[in-house]
Amino acid sequence: MTITFSAPAVPPEDARHHESAAEGNIEAAQRAISALLSALEGTADYDRILLRAAAGAGKSYALVRMVREALAHENCARVGVTAFANKQVFPLAGELGRELGAARVCLFVAKDRLPEVPQDVLDQVSVATSAGGVPDTCDVVLGTSHKMGAWGEPQRLLDRLGPGVNATLPFDVLFVDEAWQLPLHRYATVQGLAPLSVGVGDVGQLPPIDPGQNPWRGDPGYNPYRAWPTAYENDEKTFAVDLPAVWRPTAAQLPLWRAFYGDWDRLDCVAAPGDRTVEPPAMTGPAAAVWESVATGTPTLLEVEGLPDPEAPDIDPDLLGVVEEVLMPLLEGGFAITRRRYDGVGRPLNEERITSGAPSGDPLIVVLATRNQAVDDATAMVERLTDKYGLPEGVLLASTVDSWQGQTNAITVAVHPLSGADRLDEFNSAFGRLAVTCTRATHGLLMVARAGLDDLLGEAPARPGTPLGEPGNRSLPRQTHQRILTTFSRATLRLGGRGSGGRRSPCR
């Protein structure tokens, strides 16, 4: 049993960090605000404004700023804010409530979802479960597209609130958070709430519904399950701008981020080298080498040779067994992360240290898998390890990639979507699925796969066109995967001594 590493891509020499990087986002957001104000003024004929972002670009901060600027304009009396899921709406409501005050911000939520609203959000907002309960003082109303776009709800909101300055519709501007996760058919239900829509979001998000379920298959040019902004990005009444900096990743992850958003003019990282660290315990063997690589902040891919054939790509307990064995010495010895804090313009402040014995904030380690069966097995593994080491809540959990959209964690341990596959298909080669997998971590990324990814990508037949869910103009799926893999520090673990009589640990 041996482990060997190959070097990742060389870090870019032109990268900007701290306030130099954040400055680009401030300027891009200002361009979007100027377009918004011009549309409200009537000097620009825009129906939509799109603020496109990479994962972890601080888009919610920009959205709050745009809401504030819109409400300050004389031609905007009231705004609506929507998103696909309550887990996106709730924290945004809290942010807007803290910014504007509870009397001005109403969280419009289904009655049966009210118990799910965190108390710290309830403390910052007014709450209504029906249109009739929206307070007169509120000029910001937030709710999911399912709530605000329910049958008859736009008319009930208009009856309760009256028209905005536009004299026809209840809101003067509709803001859509995580816009690239909202499918076109859901946007259609809320589009008529305001004459102007502002979409803010990560272009790498996955639409929430499988495009294979399209009931309009007879018309290949129409797919209601695509993210709604993709239908308008080239429309002459749409203004679009990119946020050119990300706040989430380590500096060492920037080549990976740039591989996903390679057609952007530039992409920088607020975190500078050394701003975030992982402190693993003393270890020996292959696990030590793996965590030493992850601790540098560089994305790490561990490919495993010598495993029995899996039952299916999403039923692979042997590969998850390796993941478990890699995690065991890290959890047994305990680890810590450190992170530099920044002010609103990217200037570095104090450093914070969090240990696995007393976790706080985002989860420390999240195990991600792409299919439900795999995440069921990963959840069972997490439960075993949690019990074995008495881990506090927040140290280790498991999730599907799709469910973890919009979430953040310190270290991601993920099964590569192509692991064990014999071909590329619409599911396992989706740009968005891999992008979400790779962009949740603030400190370290460990991707795990069966050996053979290079052979799979080298032999896969070319597939013309851009697959559904892949934003913008991208290269063919196999080339996209190959480009992304070059940014990883790649390790190959060659197993030996495994047979039907049992399995010995390869990592300790």
From TrEMBL:
SUPFAM superfamilies: P-loop containing nucleoside triphosphate hydrolases (SSF52540). It comes from the Bacteria. Residues 1-22, 460-480 are annotated as: Disordered. It comes from Actinoallomurus liliacearum. This is AAA domain-containing protein. InterPro entries: P-loop_NTPase (IPR027417).
